[in-house]
Write a structure and sequence with these properties.
Blueprint: E1 5-6, E2 13-14, H1 16-21, H2 29-35, E3 39-47, E4 58-67
Antiparallel strand pairs: 1-2, 3-4
Biased composition (Basic residues): 65-76
Protein name: TraR/DksA C4-type zinc finger protein
Zinc finger (dksA C4-type): 7-31
Length: 76
């Protein structure tokens, strides 16, 4: 069972469904939409070619989530 948590921005309750889908979230759906999303996702290609080779062989992409700063709703 997932315990409801308060939103870091407005203080409202984050729905258990959202916490189940995104366990590391700190904001509710409405605040996330207003902020333009809670995270910025950066995709970086991974090189699999030998060091010094002129061929650019990429094996895949690694992704990194960067949390955007969360300001309380009353200060905006």
């Amino acid at each position: 069972m997932i315990v409801p948590q308060p939103c870091a921005r407005c203080g409202g309750e984050i729905p258990p469904e959202r916490l189940e889908a995104i366990p590391e979230t700190r904001v509710c759906v409405a605040c996330s939409k207003e902020m333009g999303g809670e995270f910025t996702v950066v995709a970086t290609p991974e090189r699999i070619s030998k060091e010094g080779s002129l061929k650019k062989n990429y094996g895949g992409y690694s992704t990194q989530k960067i949390r955007r700063p969360i300001k309380p709703k009353s200060s905006e």
